């Protein structure tokens, strides 16, 4: 995979789940060596990674130059999931097995589907937190098995929301790793209640009737009740499932909560849920580009969505999230692979086609932060304005 040959800078706190290699010596503001080039984080225990992450942050180091090793990160994620508990009751083991098989296949597909999509970025940063959530409680994959039997697209959405929620929680609360694990679980299970909604309503291509909409609006309460009945007591998980459709102005459901009355974890889930929903293809709607998805989040700050959560999202992914197809000002085109280091409008791009549309082999990585003469003129699949 090409990601392992490119140097990126990542926030020091992301070293907590990092499995790659340090690309440059890390020095303190006074010139002292804090971390040597070629340090292999995959060879370190999670506690030592965490120690390095927070000692660097304490020394004033905000970011570290690294080379990713995605295959190693994936292997660690799969090993954590493989160590997980299994249901004691045999009648639930098939559900558990099917969900775990889907989860591992999903992670492998994301990783080897090629560089440049948002899920790769999240998998590398938050995949272990999601794996730990799944491994710690066999009820989680059991419930995911029900989701899978209902609709595999619903399960893929749930995994995306789990990954993105865990990522945002980690960035917002880097000192509270177990909170991020709980948030990952809540994201995975946020739409569990939809497994009790008829498929005719769930995937209806047209507008829902008033009665159908009221049935759909019950899914957060149904999901919470199902988890409570099965013995789930984690308050973070239960609040995310019940309150991920609440909105800051009080217009959401099921409780009409507003502002600070909405649990922070639910506000995180709301952002993750909205972004993945609008940027995913469904039978009843076309997907938005990543850029339009980000714009939608920003348009809803303060009315529907939490400004801090959206701010962390935009700061991490930029206005052109990984996976966004872009057309450059010089006529070349490609896909965004990572956020930029010097602004939300200038990401790293894998340039795949030349000025005349010809395929480039090999493709070329371009850091727009370092090439001010080139900028993004538009996104593929959208109207691209003529160059001025």
3D structure, described in words:
By secondary structure, this protein is an alpha+beta fold. It has three domains: 1-68, Molybdopterin biosynthesis moea protein, domain 2, CATH 3.90.105; 70-317, Hypothetical protein af1432; 325-379, no CATH class. Helices cover 46% and strands 12% of the residues. It is built from 14 helices and ten strands. The strands form three sheets. Strands 9-8-7-6-10 form a five-stranded antiparallel beta sheet, with no helix packed on it. It has a three-stranded antiparallel beta sheet with strand order 1-5-2, with no helix packed on it. A hairpin with a 4-residue loop joins β6 (325-328) and β7. It is globular and about 60 Å long. The protein starts with 6 loop residues before the first strand and ends in a 9-residue tail after the last strand. The relative contact order is 0.09. Mean pLDDT is 91; it is low at 383-388.
């Amino acid at each position: 995979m090409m990601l392992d040959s490119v140097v990126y800078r990542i926030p020091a706190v992301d070293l907590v789940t990092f499995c790659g290699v340090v690309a440059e010596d890390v020095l303190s503001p006074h010139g002292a060596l804090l971390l040597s080039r070629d340090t292999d984080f995959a060879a370190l225990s999670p506690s030592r990674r965490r120690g390095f992450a927070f000692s660097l942050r304490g020394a004033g180091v905000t970011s570290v130059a690294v080379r990713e090793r995605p295959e190693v990160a994936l292997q660690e994620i799969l090993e954590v999931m493989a160590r997980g508990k299994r249901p004691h009751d045999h009648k639930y083991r098939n559900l558990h097995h099917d969900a775990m098989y889907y989860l591992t296949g999903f992670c492998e597909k994301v990783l080897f589907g090629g560089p440049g999509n948002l899920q790769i970025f999240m998998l590398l940063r938050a995949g272990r937190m999601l794996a730990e959530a799944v491994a710690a409680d066999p009820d989680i994959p059991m419930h995911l098995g029900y989701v899978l039997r209902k609709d595999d697209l619903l399960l893929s959405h749930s995994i995306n929301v789990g990954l993105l929620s865990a990522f945002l929680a980690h960035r917002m609360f880097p000192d509270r790793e177990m909170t991020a694990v709980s948030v990952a679980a809540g994201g995975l299970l946020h739409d569990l209640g939809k497994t009790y909604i008829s498929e005719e309503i769930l995937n209806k291509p047209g507008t829902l009737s008033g009665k159908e909409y009221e049935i759909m609006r019950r899914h957060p309460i149904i999901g919470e009740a199902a988890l409570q009945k099965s013995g789930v007591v984690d308050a973070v998980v239960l609040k995310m499932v019940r309150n991920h459709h609440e909105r800051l102005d009080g217009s959401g459901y099921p409780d009409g909560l507003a502002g600070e009355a909405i649990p922070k974890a639910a506000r995180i889930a709301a952002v993750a849920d909205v972004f993945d929903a609008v940027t995913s293809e469904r039978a009843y709607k076309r997907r938005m580009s990543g850029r339009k998805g980000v714009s939608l989040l920003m348009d809803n700050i303060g009315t529907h969505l939490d400004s801090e959560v959206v701010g962390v999202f935009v700061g991490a992914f930029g206005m052109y999230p990984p996976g966004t197809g872009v057309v450059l000002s010089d006529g070349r085109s490609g896909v965004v692979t990572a956020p930029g280091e010097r602004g939300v409008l200038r990401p790293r791009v894998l340039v795949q086609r030349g000025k005349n549309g010809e395929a480039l082999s090999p493709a070329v990585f371009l850091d727009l932060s370092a090439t001010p003469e080139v900028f993004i003129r538009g996104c593929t699949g959208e109207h691209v304005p003529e160059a001025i």
